[in-house]
Amino acid sequence: MNNIEAQKIIDRIDSMPLYLHAYAFHLNMRKERILPDDLLEIARKHHLTGAKIHVEDGETKALKTMSDAQLEAFGQKAKEYNLDLKIETSSSAANAIDEAVHIALKTRASSIRFYPRYEGHLQDVLKKVKADIQYIKETYEHTGLKFVIEQHEDLKSHELNQLVEDADFPNFSLLFDFGNMFNANELPLEAFDKMKGNITQVHMKDAVRLPEGKGFGHKASLSGEGEVPFKELVKQLICLGDEKPQVISFGLEEEVDYYAPAFRFDDEGDNPWIPYRGASETPMPTEGLDARLEKEMTDAMNQLTFVRNIAEELKQEAQAILNK
């Protein structure tokens, strides 16, 4: 840590924008034990900046099932709790974006996360994604909503960064996930380095790499127990931006047992085949369900403590450097 970084840490760490992420409660939400309203209560209780919620989280009680009046009431509750809302969808296709935008506008959310899930040769996939981005820009730029594309296991960091650079769309940027680059055959710090100019949002988690052919899958772990350089990433992300913080959202996305296969490989060539992938899902236990659901909630809260402890460590290290 140098003096410039140390000063940024001191100036920014206490107001680090932490967001509850619905995926940390994925199993509970699939069983409807936790619903979108509950996420607002949890975020408020723990003094978080906001909540990140997928349109399908909560199954029959999800945001996508709500009437306009219900969505407006949900947004009003978030406003009364002083919580920012960020909406997520698992596609870049027009119909999914239209649905997410409708929900975002009705709830007065500030941004939408998406990621592409196309099958095909890489260059064809990139063309489709570029067309989707232009649709978003032409249709929704006037709304003021921010849009982020997440690196989600199949596209590499430089490919995603180029999509943002080419879009000429000021409200469009990158969401950096702490582990998803493993599946694209990259490591966290090198992926960060290629994306850092356009990262505005983050999903924090830990994971271990799983060798698969000449690539890697990943399995998510408890934060602090995987292969992600968690503290170093937090430090570098906090320090992005000179005049003001570049990263506006750190999502608490503990997702123990989540698995994703390898998508990119050492020997893939320059136009590899990208296989179709479903939306993210963690396997539901076949037995001991109640205990697993309880553990998921405990893990989510423990991650918040873990991240706040890291923030405190960084603050103390920064103070020591500035006091030299």
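Next protein, fold it too.
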Amino acid sequence: MSQPAGRRVAAVQRALSVLDELAAAQVDLGTNELARRTGINASSVSRLLATLGEAGVVEHMPETGRYRLGLRLLELGNSVLERLDIRTIARSRLEALVGATGETATLSAPGQAESITIDVAQSTSTVQSVPRLGRPGVGHATATGKIVLAFGLVPLPDGRLERYTERTIVDRAVLGRHVAEVRAQGWAEAVGERELDLNAVAAPILGQRGELVSVLGVQGPASRFDRAAMRAALGPLLAGAAAISKGLGAGPGVAR
């Protein structure tokens, strides 16, 4: 006779508790330790581990008698990640940024030493910046590009740094210090550095291993998106980047 639905659900919940403890542990765990941590009796834990082991989601280590997470979980996780489209995940956050700031929000993919715009939520203001999809954000002169330099673990651009405006950073030593500051504070800004009448702020979107996946940005005309407005935009910008990072599997220590 099959188990009642309630008992089947409870068994799944207990199995998930075991998996959670194995995931949180820094070492392999034995049956008794798992029983202590989960509050499930040892005989039930033993049966759960046997079933989970048959499915490949936990692995038994014969030399110690302990258990660890199995490679089947990695396969399942990769299947989920393959179905994730960063633009779909980020779209609502882009629109929320426009609502919170009144300015244009962008999503960019990291390149070698630049960012590439892959999605835009446009400001509804009459006067607005109009970013183009596919346009590169120069590493040393844009907020999104600086995020790539700071979090993408890429070297500073080779050769001469092009001066776009009087505010563009063209000294490599100054740029190196600036990039270090960006990484330490977790966000970047560009004040008239690529175009004199354009200001922007940006933050990293990180994956489950802390790697740079994308860049979230807000930009607007310098006449309206001034220093005060840029500072006001940081709260929703960082919250949006953290939420997208969490959606990609980044843990709380990774998703700011």
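About the second fold: The chain has a mean pLDDT of 89.
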